[in-house]
Amino acid sequence: RSGMYSWLDSAISRYYKDEMETVLNIGHGGPVYKHLNNKINKLTSLDLNPDIQPDITASIEKMDMIDDNSVDLIFCMEVIEHVKNPFKGASEVHRILKPGGLFIASTVFIYPIHEVPCDYFRFTKYGLQELFNKMTMMEMKERNKYVFSIFCLLLRLGINKNRYITFLSLLTFPLLLLLLPLFIIFNLFI
Q: pTM value?
């Protein structure tokens, strides 16, 4: 999640206004929710898992309890890849947003499978444009360059069910730390 919180803070400062009546965070749990909750007044959370006690227990694919054109701002951080029918989810987001409302989202692209078995999709920027084609796209950018994606993939090998791969990853970890400055330099020029 390199760069996520600075990117999120920038989005909040540019788009969030205190007078917004309804701000929805899709995906209640974890540090992203805590970060948003510390910065947003009247944040409402929605999640499929009732055990984490969201304000609304529902899926992004079926938000019937939320009225049409009723939400000023929606955050959806690292959720879209976990949605079985992301086109239905995108349609629901479009339905509940007020005219002129904002949707701020983040999703992974080059990243290992996680939260098994509920990790379904990876989207290119063109796939995301198609997914949210009913909305006006104001801005889309990659949060990380591919050099850091490679570094992240190498680090994530250590979190693997195959003991042999995990062992090899732990052996190469000191080498990765030594190479980190090179990754940072390559990232500046690529």
A: 0.81
